[in-house]
Amino acid sequence: MKKTLVFGASLKPNRYSNLAIHRLVDSGVETLAYGLREGEVSGVTISNNLDKISDIHTITLYINPKRQEEYYNNIISLAPKRVIFNPGTENPEFYKLLENNDIEVDVACTLVLLGTGQY
Question: Name one Pfam family in it (predicted).
Answer without folding.
Answer: CoA_binding_2
